[in-house]
Amino acid sequence: MGTTSLLARARGLLRIRNQLVRECLAELLSTFVLIIITLSSAAQKITSFETKGNLLTSYLAGALAVMVGIYTAGGISGAHMNPAFSFAMCLMEQFPWWKFPIFVVVQTLASFISAGAVYILYYDAIWHYSNGTLTVTGPRETASIFATYPADYVSIANGFLDQVIGTGVLMVGVMGIMDNRNKGVPKGLEPVVVALLVLSIESSMGSNCGCPLNPARDIGPRLFTYLAGWGPEVFRWVEGRG
């Protein structure tokens, strides 16, 4: 009885009653889960010389990470995990504009923290693979573990268009899945269908720029790599990465 009472009191003291704080923490956790799985799949693929992962496993991990993130916080914050999605929800008047900058900061912060966690998790592998030099280009580059970079043939205009189309398809697909007037997805399986949508986009539109589809997924980890030793080159449009 004593232990049960103590646990009940502890839960009462730790319970967060402010709805905005609850939503922000949920968004932080869901985005953290999304990005740490996504980046870890890239780290495993790259640092193992693709012996323990390949492009398909990276795409599959990223898609399943979306599913896990939605299941983690979908009932609290909506598990946006993506400033583009938050923006779309604001345009459709399903999310208040005043919350938009707050969610963007939380999503970017979570991505930054996730990048740090992946760097710690794969620290030895990254330094072994890179021969002790953190680079953005070259055969042993490791920056692409954390952020996406264009193929060497992609122009700025083509890269911009690539992301507009890819993210647009994602938004249209998610809105269609959420629309009750369409053919309904069985209740509770919406995250699975969204994951399949993401996998289909990654499998068909990933060759140009890596298919980030999420500003927070790219900005947070890119900022981390800048601070962690890769330097300002991570913010440049780099050609000839191979």
UniProtKB/TrEMBL annotation:
Q: Where are the transmembrane segments?
A: 20-39, 59-79, 100-122, 160-178
Pfam families attached to this UniProt entry: MIP
- Work out whether the entry's keyword set contains rRNA-binding: no
Q: Which GO terms describe its cellular component?
A: basolateral plasma membrane
**Statement: the UniProt record of this protein carries the keyword Membrane:** yes
Q: Which GO terms describe its molecular function?
A: glycerol channel activity; urea transmembrane transporter activity; water channel activity
Primary location group:
membrane
Compartments where found: Cell membrane
Per UniProt, which keywords does this protein have? Answer: Cell membrane, Glycoprotein, Membrane, Repeat, Transmembrane, Transmembrane helix, Transport
Q: How does it sit in the membrane?
A: Multi-pass membrane protein
Question: What domain of life does the UniProt record list for this protein's source?
Answer: Eukaryota
Catalytic activities: glycerol(in) = glycerol(out); H2O(in) = H2O(out); urea(in) = urea(out)
- Spell out the PANTHER family in the cross-references: AQUAPORIN OR AQUAGLYCEROPORIN RELATED (PTHR43829), AQUAPORIN-10 (PTHR43829:SF13)
Q: Which family does it belong to?
A: Belongs to the MIP/aquaporin (TC 1.A.8) family.
Q: How does it assemble?
A: Homotetramer; each monomer provides an independent glycerol/water pore. Could also exist in other oligomeric states.
Function statement: Aquaglyceroporins form homotetrameric transmembrane channels, with each monomer independently mediating glycerol and water transport across the plasma membrane along their osmotic gradient. Could also be permeable to urea. Also participates in cell permeability to H2O2 and H2O2-mediated signaling. In skin, transports glycerol to the epidermis and stratum corneum, where it maintains hydration, elasticity, and supports lipid biosynthesis for barrier repair. In kidney, contributes to the reabsorption of water, helping the body maintain proper fluid balance.
User: What is the name listed in the Swiss-Prot or TrEMBL entry for this protein?
Assistant: Aquaporin-3
In its UniProt entry, the species of origin is given as Daphoenositta chrysoptera
